[in-house]
Amino acid sequence: MIKVEKLYKSFGKLDVLKDISTEIKKGEVVAIIGPSGSGKSTFLRCLNLLEVPTAGKIYIDGQDITAKETDIMTIRQNVGMVFQHFHLFPHMTVLENMTYAPIKVKGVAKERAKASAMELLKRVGLAEKADVYPTKLSGGQKQRVAIARSLAMEPEALLFDEPTSALDPEMVKEVLDVMKSLAHTGITMAIVTHEMGFAREVADRILFLDQGRLLEDKTPSEFFSAPSSERAKQFLEKML
Ligand code: ADP
Ligand code: MG
Protein backbone atom coordinates (compact mmCIF):
# COMPACT_ATOMS: atom_id res chain seq x y z
CA MET A 1 0.00 0.00 0.00
CA ILE A 2 2.93 2.32 0.76
CA LYS A 3 6.00 2.07 -1.40
CA VAL A 4 9.11 4.14 -0.75
CA GLU A 5 11.81 4.36 -3.40
CA LYS A 6 15.22 5.89 -2.79
CA LEU A 7 13.89 8.48 -0.37
CA TYR A 8 16.20 11.32 0.65
CA LYS A 9 15.42 14.20 2.97
CA SER A 10 17.76 17.03 3.87
CA PHE A 11 17.28 20.10 6.01
CA GLY A 12 19.75 22.53 4.50
CA LYS A 13 23.10 20.80 4.69
CA LEU A 14 21.87 18.18 7.12
CA ASP A 15 21.13 14.92 5.30
CA VAL A 16 18.54 13.25 7.51
CA LEU A 17 17.24 10.42 5.33
CA LYS A 18 19.53 8.64 2.90
CA ASP A 19 18.41 6.26 0.19
CA ILE A 20 15.51 4.61 1.96
CA SER A 21 13.53 2.04 0.02
CA THR A 22 10.84 -0.17 1.51
CA GLU A 23 7.28 -1.30 1.13
CA ILE A 24 4.42 -1.53 3.59
CA LYS A 25 1.67 -3.86 2.49
CA LYS A 26 -2.01 -3.35 3.08
CA GLY A 27 -2.92 -4.37 6.61
CA GLU A 28 0.69 -4.70 7.66
CA VAL A 29 1.97 -3.35 10.99
CA VAL A 30 5.50 -2.00 10.78
CA ALA A 31 7.52 -0.81 13.77
CA ILE A 32 10.21 1.78 13.11
CA ILE A 33 12.96 1.79 15.67
CA GLY A 34 16.37 3.35 16.07
CA PRO A 35 18.39 5.81 18.11
CA SER A 36 17.22 9.34 18.80
CA GLY A 37 17.98 11.60 15.84
CA SER A 38 18.18 8.72 13.35
CA GLY A 39 15.37 10.16 11.22
CA LYS A 40 12.38 8.11 12.38
CA SER A 41 10.00 11.05 12.76
CA THR A 42 11.17 12.59 9.51
CA PHE A 43 10.58 9.32 7.70
CA LEU A 44 7.07 9.02 9.12
CA ARG A 45 6.30 12.64 8.31
CA CYS A 46 7.35 12.14 4.71
CA LEU A 47 4.74 9.39 4.38
CA ASN A 48 1.88 11.87 4.70
CA LEU A 49 3.76 14.88 3.36
CA LEU A 50 4.17 16.70 6.65
CA GLU A 51 7.71 16.85 5.24
CA VAL A 52 8.42 17.11 1.55
CA PRO A 53 11.05 14.60 0.40
CA THR A 54 14.20 16.04 -1.12
CA ALA A 55 14.47 13.15 -3.59
CA GLY A 56 12.90 9.79 -4.21
CA LYS A 57 9.34 8.60 -4.60
CA ILE A 58 6.55 7.60 -2.28
CA TYR A 59 3.57 5.74 -3.67
CA ILE A 60 0.36 5.31 -1.73
CA ASP A 61 -2.03 2.86 -3.39
CA GLY A 62 0.01 3.25 -6.54
CA GLN A 63 -0.27 7.05 -6.58
CA ASP A 64 3.00 9.00 -6.53
CA ILE A 65 2.40 11.45 -3.69
CA THR A 66 5.62 13.30 -4.45
CA ALA A 67 4.20 14.36 -7.81
CA LYS A 68 3.42 18.08 -8.13
CA GLU A 69 -0.29 17.62 -8.76
CA THR A 70 -0.86 15.62 -5.56
CA ASP A 71 -3.55 16.99 -3.29
CA ILE A 72 -1.91 17.00 0.15
CA MET A 73 -5.21 17.17 1.99
CA THR A 74 -6.47 13.99 0.34
CA ILE A 75 -3.27 12.18 1.25
CA ARG A 76 -3.53 13.30 4.87
CA GLN A 77 -7.15 12.15 5.07
CA ASN A 78 -6.10 8.78 3.82
CA VAL A 79 -2.97 8.50 5.96
CA GLY A 80 -3.63 9.67 9.51
CA MET A 81 -1.06 10.58 12.14
CA VAL A 82 -0.97 10.15 15.91
CA PHE A 83 1.61 12.27 17.73
CA GLN A 84 3.56 11.90 20.94
CA HIS A 85 1.81 14.93 22.44
CA PHE A 86 -1.75 14.11 21.33
CA HIS A 87 -2.50 17.50 19.70
CA LEU A 88 -6.13 17.54 20.79
CA PHE A 89 -8.01 20.81 20.35
CA PRO A 90 -8.21 22.14 23.92
CA HIS A 91 -11.31 24.29 23.39
CA MET A 92 -13.39 21.40 22.05
CA THR A 93 -14.99 18.49 23.87
CA VAL A 94 -13.85 14.97 23.09
CA LEU A 95 -16.79 14.47 20.73
CA GLU A 96 -16.19 17.83 19.02
CA ASN A 97 -12.52 16.94 18.59
CA MET A 98 -13.61 13.78 16.83
CA THR A 99 -16.35 15.15 14.60
CA TYR A 100 -14.66 18.39 13.54
CA ALA A 101 -12.62 17.07 10.61
CA PRO A 102 -15.18 14.54 9.36
CA ILE A 103 -17.78 17.34 9.21
CA LYS A 104 -15.52 20.15 7.92
CA VAL A 105 -13.19 18.25 5.66
CA LYS A 106 -15.19 15.25 4.51
CA GLY A 107 -18.64 16.83 4.63
CA VAL A 108 -20.13 14.09 6.80
CA ALA A 109 -23.53 14.99 8.24
CA LYS A 110 -23.34 16.08 11.87
CA GLU A 111 -25.54 13.35 13.33
CA ARG A 112 -23.72 10.66 11.42
CA ALA A 113 -20.34 12.01 12.46
CA LYS A 114 -21.47 11.97 16.10
CA ALA A 115 -22.78 8.42 15.87
CA SER A 116 -19.52 7.15 14.32
CA ALA A 117 -17.49 9.05 16.89
CA MET A 118 -19.45 7.41 19.71
CA GLU A 119 -18.79 3.99 18.21
CA LEU A 120 -15.07 4.74 18.08
CA LEU A 121 -15.06 6.09 21.62
CA LYS A 122 -16.60 2.81 22.76
CA ARG A 123 -13.85 0.96 20.96
CA VAL A 124 -11.16 2.83 22.87
CA GLY A 125 -13.13 2.49 26.12
CA LEU A 126 -14.00 6.17 26.56
CA ALA A 127 -17.68 6.50 25.67
CA GLU A 128 -18.38 8.19 29.00
CA LYS A 129 -15.90 10.99 28.20
CA ALA A 130 -17.66 12.25 25.06
CA ASP A 131 -18.66 15.60 26.54
CA VAL A 132 -15.60 16.46 28.60
CA TYR A 133 -12.73 18.72 27.60
CA PRO A 134 -9.23 17.31 27.08
CA THR A 135 -7.86 18.97 30.25
CA LYS A 136 -10.05 16.60 32.26
CA LEU A 137 -8.39 13.53 30.75
CA SER A 138 -5.29 11.62 31.77
CA GLY A 139 -2.47 11.31 29.24
CA GLY A 140 -3.49 7.78 28.36
CA GLN A 141 -7.08 8.86 27.82
CA LYS A 142 -5.96 11.80 25.66
CA GLN A 143 -3.94 9.50 23.47
CA ARG A 144 -6.83 7.06 23.13
CA VAL A 145 -9.04 9.97 22.06
CA ALA A 146 -6.37 11.10 19.59
CA ILE A 147 -6.32 7.61 18.08
CA ALA A 148 -10.11 7.50 17.90
CA ARG A 149 -10.08 10.95 16.30
CA SER A 150 -7.69 9.78 13.60
CA LEU A 151 -9.88 6.74 12.98
CA ALA A 152 -12.92 8.99 12.56
CA MET A 153 -11.49 10.06 9.20
CA GLU A 154 -11.52 6.40 8.14
CA PRO A 155 -7.91 6.43 6.98
CA GLU A 156 -6.39 3.48 5.16
CA ALA A 157 -3.18 3.85 7.09
CA LEU A 158 -2.29 5.29 10.47
CA LEU A 159 1.15 6.58 11.41
CA PHE A 160 2.14 6.74 15.09
CA ASP A 161 5.11 8.80 16.24
CA GLU A 162 6.13 7.56 19.70
CA PRO A 163 2.52 7.46 20.88
CA THR A 164 3.43 6.35 24.41
CA SER A 165 6.64 8.31 24.99
CA ALA A 166 4.93 11.21 26.76
CA LEU A 167 2.88 8.99 29.05
CA ASP A 168 3.39 8.02 32.66
CA PRO A 169 4.40 4.36 32.81
CA GLU A 170 1.06 3.19 34.20
CA MET A 171 -0.75 4.56 31.14
CA VAL A 172 1.40 3.01 28.47
CA LYS A 173 -0.42 -0.31 28.47
CA GLU A 174 -3.92 1.07 27.90
CA VAL A 175 -2.69 2.84 24.75
CA LEU A 176 -0.68 -0.13 23.50
CA ASP A 177 -3.73 -2.34 24.06
CA VAL A 178 -5.84 -0.06 21.86
CA MET A 179 -3.15 -0.15 19.18
CA LYS A 180 -2.91 -3.91 19.47
CA SER A 181 -6.64 -4.32 18.92
CA LEU A 182 -6.42 -1.93 15.96
CA ALA A 183 -3.65 -3.99 14.43
CA HIS A 184 -6.12 -6.86 14.07
CA THR A 185 -8.64 -4.78 12.11
CA GLY A 186 -6.66 -4.77 8.89
CA ILE A 187 -5.68 -1.09 8.94
CA THR A 188 -2.12 -0.44 7.79
CA MET A 189 0.05 0.89 10.62
CA ALA A 190 3.54 2.36 10.86
CA ILE A 191 4.65 2.95 14.44
CA VAL A 192 7.76 4.69 15.70
CA THR A 193 8.28 3.25 19.15
CA HIS A 194 10.77 2.45 21.86
CA GLU A 195 8.47 -0.26 23.24
CA MET A 196 10.48 -3.27 22.13
CA GLY A 197 8.09 -5.81 23.67
CA PHE A 198 5.20 -4.31 21.76
CA ALA A 199 7.17 -4.16 18.51
CA ARG A 200 8.16 -7.76 18.86
CA GLU A 201 4.67 -8.96 19.64
CA VAL A 202 2.53 -6.82 17.35
CA ALA A 203 4.62 -5.79 14.35
CA ASP A 204 4.83 -7.83 11.18
CA ARG A 205 8.10 -6.11 10.34
CA ILE A 206 10.78 -4.04 12.00
CA LEU A 207 12.55 -1.19 10.24
CA PHE A 208 15.75 -0.15 11.99
CA LEU A 209 17.03 3.32 11.15
CA ASP A 210 20.45 4.62 12.05
CA GLN A 211 21.86 7.97 10.95
CA GLY A 212 19.24 8.27 8.25
CA ARG A 213 19.83 4.87 6.73
CA LEU A 214 17.54 1.88 6.78
CA LEU A 215 19.92 -0.72 8.14
CA GLU A 216 17.47 -3.53 8.75
CA ASP A 217 14.07 -4.45 7.34
CA LYS A 218 13.09 -7.80 8.85
CA THR A 219 10.50 -9.81 10.72
CA PRO A 220 10.60 -9.27 14.50
CA SER A 221 11.90 -12.78 15.15
CA GLU A 222 14.75 -12.29 12.68
CA PHE A 223 15.52 -8.82 13.95
CA PHE A 224 15.48 -9.52 17.67
CA SER A 225 17.27 -12.84 17.50
CA ALA A 226 19.84 -11.98 14.87
CA PRO A 227 20.23 -8.35 13.85
CA SER A 228 22.78 -8.23 11.07
CA SER A 229 24.21 -4.78 11.71
CA GLU A 230 26.55 -3.90 14.55
CA ARG A 231 24.51 -0.71 15.14
CA ALA A 232 21.31 -2.67 15.72
CA LYS A 233 23.10 -5.05 18.07
CA GLN A 234 24.39 -2.12 20.11
CA PHE A 235 20.97 -0.48 20.09
CA LEU A 236 19.22 -3.63 21.30
CA GLU A 237 21.74 -4.19 24.05
CA LYS A 238 20.85 -0.79 25.42
CA MET A 239 17.10 -1.23 25.00
CA LEU A 240 16.51 -4.76 26.25
P1 ADP B 1 14.17 10.79 15.37
O1 ADP B 1 12.68 10.89 15.26
O2 ADP B 1 14.71 9.47 14.97
O3 ADP B 1 14.65 11.16 16.74
P2 ADP B 1 14.16 13.08 13.60
O4 ADP B 1 13.58 12.62 12.33
O5 ADP B 1 13.29 13.86 14.51
O6 ADP B 1 14.81 11.83 14.38
O7 ADP B 1 15.43 13.97 13.31
C1 ADP B 1 16.52 13.53 12.54
C2 ADP B 1 17.50 14.68 12.39
O8 ADP B 1 16.88 15.70 11.60
C3 ADP B 1 17.92 15.32 13.69
O9 ADP B 1 19.27 15.68 13.58
C4 ADP B 1 17.04 16.56 13.76
O10 ADP B 1 17.66 17.56 14.49
C5 ADP B 1 16.91 16.93 12.30
N1 ADP B 1 15.65 17.62 11.99
C6 ADP B 1 14.41 17.11 12.12
N2 ADP B 1 13.47 18.00 11.72
C7 ADP B 1 14.15 19.11 11.33
C8 ADP B 1 13.75 20.38 10.79
N3 ADP B 1 12.47 20.68 10.58
N4 ADP B 1 14.73 21.25 10.49
C9 ADP B 1 16.03 20.95 10.69
N5 ADP B 1 16.47 19.79 11.18
C10 ADP B 1 15.54 18.87 11.49
MG1 MG C 1 11.20 11.35 16.61
TrEMBL record:
<dbReference type="InterPro" id="IPR050086">
    <property type="entry name" value="MetN_ABC_transporter-like"/>
</dbReference>
<keyword id="KW-0547">Nucleotide-binding</keyword>
<dbReference type="GO" id="GO:0005524">
    <property type="term" value="F:ATP binding"/>
</dbReference>
<dbReference type="InterPro" id="IPR027417">
    <property type="entry name" value="P-loop_NTPase"/>
</dbReference>
<dbReference type="InterPro" id="IPR030679">
    <property type="entry name" value="ABC_ATPase_HisP-typ"/>
</dbReference>
<dbReference type="InterPro" id="IPR017871">
    <property type="entry name" value="ABC_transporter-like_CS"/>
</dbReference>
<dbReference type="InterPro" id="IPR003593">
    <property type="entry name" value="AAA+_ATPase"/>
</dbReference>
<protein>
    <submittedName>
        <fullName>Amino acid ABC transporter ATP-binding protein</fullName>
    </submittedName>
</protein>
<feature type="domain" description="ABC transporter">
    <location>
        <begin position="2"/>
        <end position="236"/>
    </location>
</feature>
<dbReference type="InterPro" id="IPR003439">
    <property type="entry name" value="ABC_transporter-like_ATP-bd"/>
</dbReference>
<dbReference type="Pfam" id="PF00005">
    <property type="entry name" value="ABC_tran"/>
</dbReference>
<keyword id="KW-0067">ATP-binding</keyword>
<keyword id="KW-0813">Transport</keyword>
